Amino acid sequence: MHIYDLFEAPAYDIKQSKFNRGGQNDEKARIYKIADPNYRKFNPKAGVDILGKGVTAYAVSKKDKPHEVKKIVFEGDHPSRDPYFKFLKMAIKNQDSIFIPKIYSVKIFKYAKGSGDSVMYSYFYHIEMERLNSWKNLNWGQWSQLFNIYLGVTVKSLNVASKSKASDMFAAILSNIVRVGGVSKNAKIAPNSDLVDRLVLLTKIFKRGSVTLDLHKANMMYRITPYGVQPVIADPFYY
Ligand SMILES: Nc1ncnc2c1ncn2[C@@H]1O[C@H](COP(=O)(O)OP(=O)(O)O)[C@@H](O)[C@H]1O
Ligand SMILES: [Mg+2]
Q: How far apart are CA 232 and CA 97, in angstroms?
């Protein structure tokens, strides 16, 4: 069975893994430990390291699995509304693409806040996924390669002055492809067609109006391979 057959089960099985690798009880104990809200610093005993924190999520590493991370989305919304979960569903159907993060498991937890009539629910998502690099880890050679191979344009011709500007521009071009639903006629770029295809899948979700496009440099990540660097759409939506 394909993982997405499991994933597209009609009812959301909250508090249980949608698809799972490894023993469930072990896994839960480990996740609760990692997801403790007071857990902020590197803990040599547990071998956990906070790799980065954004507005809705943070990512932790484990020493024994250097190639993957656990991304913990806190205060998420119900799976029928949550923007990151919408992206995850698309990502799981597109695991063949280099532009999409490799997702290994997803768990959804429901938390009650308050009690009685004033009870509110919040949802946490725990995602085991491949470890990726931020734009800060890339050098000029890699930026030059990214612009050449994936956008069909030289970084020089765009007058980009710094690596920070290069990452801004790269994300802005991708974001525009999602917004327009393709490459603008007057754009001076010739992007990789598979990249455009995957971006246009995001256009469909975005155009339904339930999410805001949020594809800036901190939400693009990069896969460094022996054959070159690959851009990965990591976190494209916001409420
Ligand atoms: N796959 C990953 N590998 C390494 N770090 C990650 C990964 N996913 C997320 N991070 C880190 O966690 C931060 C927050 O994740 P992100 O997906 O941008 O969530 P949000 O912006 O909604 O809080 C990122 O800026 C990055 O530093
Ligand atoms: Mg982010």
A: 9
